[in-house]
Amino acid sequence: MNIFLKKIGALCATLCLAVSLQAQGGIQFFEGTWEGAVAKAKKERKIIFMDAYATWCGPCKYLKQKVFVNGDVGAFYNKNFVNFAIDWESAAAAPLRNKYPLRAYPTLFLIDPATEQAVTKVEGALDAANLIKFGEHGVDIAAGKQPQK
Predict the structure, then answer these.
(1) I need a labelling partner for 1 at 20 to 30 A (CA). Which of 20, 59, 99, 148 fits?
(2) Closest CA to 134 of 80, 85, 87, 56
(3) Is the pLDDT of residue 119 over 60?
(4) Whole-prediction pTM value?
């Protein structure tokens, strides 16, 4: 009986740790098409956060590995945005390239789904605190609290 209880206890501890780690997760990116992300954002009345990246880009990898996984970043972005990441050099990005021109990788956009116009954008990688500030700025712009820059 003791061995059984120890095994149950170990299983419960493992499950609790897994749930805890998942709850602290980072940004959850929409896995689908651009059109699907726009429809979801309209339905949920959220702005779209779009990460335009390239697979070879070092700062893009930094964002993916160090910043987007941050629990505070994830909590803020998952609450306020429909998050969409796209390899800007892929065929899937071709229809978006003329609409959202960029000069550097990564470029992070906040987009109004109703108009599909960029509310604001930033070029380059940001640390977690500055990514949250960028998001807060975009939320304020969308709410009419700040002029667009």
Answers:
(1) 20
(2) 80
(3) yes
(4) 0.82
Mean pLDDT throughout 64-78? 98
Spatial distance between the Cα atoms of 28 and 40, rounded to a whole number of angstroms = 14
Nearest to 51 by CA among 130, 116, 113, 107: 107
Q: Is the peptide bond before 106 cis (omega within 30 degrees of 0)?
A: yes
Question: What distance in Å separates the CA atoms of residue 108 and residue 84, rounded to the nearest whole number?
Answer: 10
HEC string of 97-147 equals HCCCCCCCCCEEEEEECCCCEEEEEEECCCCHHHHHHHHHHHHHHHCCCCC
Residues 30/40, Cβ–Cβ less than 8 Å = yes
Q: What share of the chain is helix, strand, coil (3-state, %, to 5)?
A: 50, 20, 30
Does pLDDT of 12 surpass 50? Answer: no
